[in-house]
Amino acid sequence: MYRALTREAQEAGIEPIDGGALTDLARRLRFELSNEGPRSELLLNGKVLSPATLHRPEIDRDVSAVSAHPGVRGVVVAQQRELANRSPIVVLGRDIGTVVLPDAGVKLFVTASSEVRAARRMAEAQADAAPVDERELHAELSRRDHIDSSRPVSPLVAASDAIWLDTGNLTVNEAIEAACGAVSHALESVRPSPG
Hints:
By secondary structure, the chain is mainly alpha-helical. The protein has helices spanning about 1-10, 20-30, 50-55, 55-65, 70-85, 95-100, 115-125, 135-150, 170-190; strands spanning about 30-35, 40-45, 45-50, 110, 165. A hairpin with a 2-residue loop joins strand 2 and strand 3 (about 45-50). Helix 2 runs parallel beside helix 5 and helix 7 crosses helix 8.
């Protein structure tokens, strides 16, 4: 959602430091979930958000600055909670378990080193034939991690009751299997026993 807001701000010519204009823009955006097909898709003002359009270098560069404004976070968090309250949902974000949904039944803190994440982004960029410098990408990921973990509002930290999942040495399928296993185990432990 913050990436979509960042893209909309860039298209409107709003600078990442302009918290007031960004907050006003966030108030005009309406996020919804489509329930058609086998999986839900996030919609922005009625249009499907394509992940490919949200993971471009110019969005990576600005998203942390855009999402650091308290007004912006207040608007987006309210919409995230509204979506989550409608039906069971899996939500991804850097403050979901600590701020957005602190009472969530299961929280995973998925992590990998910035080197691993940079290599993964490089592979994605090469598959899309997009030119990317791995050192610059690594520096950008490290910069974003620092900004997000040190911001005063909704910093990137693991919830005290989160299950840590380091995917650094896992394939995509192994990571999915580990996540599903952790969630199943957590749900089993909170289910009342029969009888």
